[in-house]
Amino acid sequence: MVTEVIMPKLGQTMEEGKIERWLKKEGDSVEKGDVLLEVTTDKATLEVESYGSGILRKIIIGGGETVPVTAVIGYIAEEGEQLPEVQEKPQEEMAVKTEERARYEAGPKEEPLPGKKVKASPLAKKIAVEKGIDLGNVKGTGPGGRITKEDVLAAVSGGGGAAAAGLSPMRKAIAEQMSRSKREIPHYYLTAEVDMSEVSKKRASLSVSFTPIIIKAVAQALSESPQVNAHWQESGIKTFSEVNIGIAVALEEGLIVPVLRDAQKKTVQEISAEVKVLAAKAKEKKLSVEEYSGATFTISNLGMFGIESFVPIINPPQVGILGIGAIEKKCVAVDGKVEIRPRMKFTLSVDHRAVDGAVAAQFLKRLRAILETANVA
Question: Could you tell me if 331 and 363 lie in one domain?
Answer without folding.
Answer: yes
